[in-house]
Design a protein that fits this description.
The complex is a heterodimer of chains A (279) and B (441). Chain A is of the alpha+beta class. Chain A has helices at residues 2-37, 52-65, 159-162, 271-278; strands spanning 71-81, 88-97, 102-109, 117-121, 124-129, 134-138, 163-173, 176-185, 194-200, 206-212, 218-230, 234-244, 251-260. Chain A has one domain: Clam (outer membrane lipoprotein receptor (LolB), chain A). Chain A has a 13-stranded antiparallel beta sheet with strand order 6-5-4-3-2-1-13-12-11-10-9-8-7, sandwiched between helices. Chain A is globular and about 50 Å long. Chain B is 51% helix and 21% strand. Classes of the chains: A alpha+beta (279), B alpha+beta (441).
């Protein structure tokens, strides 16, 4: 069974790399023509309403991944691969309390990043820099440690408030049949004005998202390779692969290990905790 | 009197060796100070001219605007600002809008963040004469709304040639990513330090890339026929803008002025006031150059300090030399005093001798310095991308020796020499004829 899973994952990775590169080139080419001819008409084709089936898919997925009733502790390991450069590895301890819309991230590896951390409380995201002992206010959509993983990956998603959602057909990702939902931003204050999410038909969980610019150029493809079931029918991703479509050969692998749902002390979600842990 | 002055000048050459030693000191001081003055004057003129041809105008209007509860960097109602400039400053005024964006560029697996400047090529042609195209041309760039002109250094970095397409990706002012494709229509080199990193695109392309509304620009650049009484003209322009409903301010200091003319598009902030408005900041070129002026003042201050040290050493030499001269010329002093020349005249003669030596030597040093500065400027060329680039005018170090500066320096050195000659000279003048003759015979 283990071998079968591994084999299926190998096929999955092979297929996503193939699909990712073809799609990004095609999207880039299409966007080039679109932008070159009518630059002022960006986003003109964007939807202005949501269809109910797509909204239901989003609600189902958000319901399953909504960890509002749980405190979650886990360890993220990010491996960033860039062509011609040595791999960059980051290990981060995660503390989440989605009910209070807060999380704390603590960098554990490499030593140069040790002690650095993020603390988010609602819309405020702070980056703690132990070298200067200061907190820097950041956009909540900040890339974590300069990787392809973004800070808004943690916490409760609010897709229907930010996007018009519509079905965009079906597709096969690896061996899974998926419903494809296209997201068009209601306002341009989201990082990716257009996104496509591929929901696995078997359980309604996303296996892939494609993130586009306002000009509909593919910028990033994120694959949700594996999930872990939590109490109460909830799920949390345990493996993610993010591929930068513009930066050739740049990928970030993320593993989410040691997932626990024990109660986390309130003090963990504070600036003082980050300061204390950096000493 | 005329004979008296002539005698003083003649006496300078009586002890040639001593005068030469002292004269060389005066000449060296004058040489250094004239060279420093030529450098700082040249730097100021060069930086000012280069800036005006690149990133700052005689009056630069930049600022922020509030719309729908958010504050964005840049200006709205740009056309109104340009019309008001012409109305209040005269029809000869040239007002140009530009859009600045810092964006990542991707080509062939390589990426780099570049600063883009968007201009309207039908009216904003000031860059044209400063760009030497090594591939493509200004006309090819101007004719293509998606065209880009890039510096040679950028072309080398990416391995780009004319006709290549590059992808640009920017985090827009709203927070959303946007992308576009630019075609390389020109690769250029320039001697203007401030244009060295200029990546030139069309205004409309950058505005669309930043997803900004019609009427938005990063800044409006106002060029006047005459820059005389610039502060007054800025005030008149500010008053007119205020009457058109703009909130107008001036930069708080030199750094604020620099920031005002170099700020690129950034993401929005939340507006705490909640009223739509355009906040325009008017910076004059004098304010933008304030920092340059401070640097040149610091250079001049260092030069003045060095000169003061050298002059102090010279003053001591003058003092000792003149005392020795007086001791050697006691017979002459005694004869003069016996003939009825009063003490004041003897003091004046020796003081004049000291001043004459300083005048001739420092004038020679200053003239030599000016000539060498001009020769150096004409003969020696530097690479445009080097550390000296900011001081280069067409590849040559911008040294500007000035006759006024030279005259002031020579007079100052002469006065100092005269002052330090006076005290030993006064001692010589006070010698009674009988004392002088007794000491001699």
């Amino acid at each position: 069974m283990k071998n079968a899973t591994l084999f299926s994952r190998r096929i999955f990775f092979a297929s996503i790399l193939r699909v990712g590169s073809h799609r990004s080139l095609a999207a880039l080419g299409a966007a080039a023509v679109l932008f070159a001819t009518v630059p002022a008409a960006l986003g003109a084709e964007a939807a202005k309403a949501s269809d109910s089936k797509a909204a239901a898919l989003i609600e189902t997925y958000e319901g399953k991944t909504d960890l509002a009733g749980l405190d979650v502790t886990s360890t993220f390991t990010l491996i960033q691969k860039k062509e011609g450069e040595a791999d960059r590895v980051l290990r981060i301890q995660i503390y989440r309390r989605d009910a209070a819309d807060t999380f704390t991230l603590l960098f554990q590896y490499p030593d140069s990043e040790k002690g650095k951390g993020y603390w988010r409380s609602k819309d405020d995201l702070f980056l703690y820099l132990p070298t200067t002992r200061e907190f820097v206010y950041r956009n909540r959509k900040d890339d974590v440690g300069g990787s392809d993983i973004r800070a808004d990956l943690f916490g409760k998603p609010n897709t229907l408030a930010q996007y018009w959602v519509n079905l965009a057909g079906t597709a096969k990702v690896s061996s899974w049949d998926c419903d494809v939902v296209r997201l068009d931003a209601k306002k341009l204050d989201v990082a990716y004005p257009v996104q496509k999410i591929y929901f696995r038909k078997t359980d309604g969980l996303p296996v892939k998202t494609e993130s586009f610019s306002a000009g509909e150029t593919l910028l990033r493809t994120t694959y949700f390779v594996d999930y872990k079931a939590l109490p109460g029918g909830k799920y949390i991703f345990t493996k993610i692969l993010a591929i930068d479509a513009l930066e050739k050969g740049q990928k970030t692998y993320l593993t989410n290990e040691g997932v626990a749902t024990d109660k986390i002390p309130d003090y963990t979600f504070s600036k003082a905790f980050l300061e204390e842990k950096s000493r | 009197m005329k004979e008296f002055v002539a005698l003083a000048f003649k006496n300078v050459f009586r002890n040639g060796k001593r005068s030469l030693t002292l004269g060389i000191n005066y000449a060296v001081v004058a040489f250094i100070l004239v060279a420093l003055a030529a450098f700082t004057r040249g730097a100021q003129t060069n930086v000012s001219r280069s800036l005006v041809q690149a990133t700052a105008a005689h009056i630069t209007v930049s600022g922020q605007y509030a719309k729908d509860g958010r504050i964005y960097n840049g200006l709205l109602r740009t056309d109104d600002i340009m019309k008001t400039a012409k109305k209040s400053l005269g029809p000869d005024t040239l007002a140009l809008k530009r859009y600045l964006v810092r964006s990542a560029v991707y080509f062939n697996g390589i990426s780099k963040r570049l600063s883009f400047t968007g201009v309207d090529p039908s009216v904003d042609v000031g860059f044209r004469g400063q760009m030497e195209f090594t591939s493509g041309s200004w006309d090819a760039w101007a004719a293509d709304p998606n065209g880009v002109a890039i510096p040679e250094s950028v072309a080398r970095y990416f391995g780009l040639k004319a006709g290549d397409d590059v992808v640009v990706s920017v985090r827009t002012r709203f927070g959303a990513f946007n992308t576009g494709i630019l075609k390389v229509r020109g690769i250029y080199r320039t001697d203007n330090y401030f244009l060295g990193d200029l990546t030139l695109t069309h205004f409309d392309f950058l505005r669309a890339l930043d997803l900004a509304d019609e009427g938005t620009a990063t800044a409006v650049y106002v060029y006047l026929k005459s820059t005389a009484r610039l502060a007054e003209k800025r005030d008149a322009f500010a008053t007119s803008l205020a009457s058109e409903g703009f909130e107008v301010s001036k930069p708080k200091g030199d750094s604020d002025a620099i920031a005002a003319v170099s700020g690129a598009s950034q993401r929005y902030e939340v507006d705490r006031i909640g009223r739509d408005r355009v906040m325009a900041k008017l910076s004059t070129i004098d304010e933008v150059l304030g920092i340059v002026r401070n640097i040149t003042i610091a250079v001049q201050g260092l030069g003045a300090f060095l000169a003061a040290v050298m002059l102090f050493v010279i003053a001591i030499s003058v003092f000792i030399n003149l005392r020795m001269t007086i001791n050697e010329r006691l017979r002459e002093i005694g004869a003069m005093r016996a003939m009825g020349v009063d003490a004041f005249a003897v003091t004046a003669l020796f003081t004049l001798e000291g001043a004459a030596l300083a005048l001739m030597s420092s004038a020679a040093g200053a003239a030599l310095s000016a000539a060498l500065c001009l020769a150096f400027r004409a003969a020696v060329a530097f690479p445009s991308g080097g550390n000296l680039a900011i001081f280069l005018d067409a590849g040559h170090l911008a040294l500007e020796p000035d006759l006024g500066d030279m005259a002031i320096l020579v007079v100052a050195i002469t006065i100092i020499a005269a002052a330090f000659s006076f005290f030993p000279a006064r001692r010589g003048g006070r010698i009674k004829p009988v004392e002088a003759l007794t000491a001699t015979f």
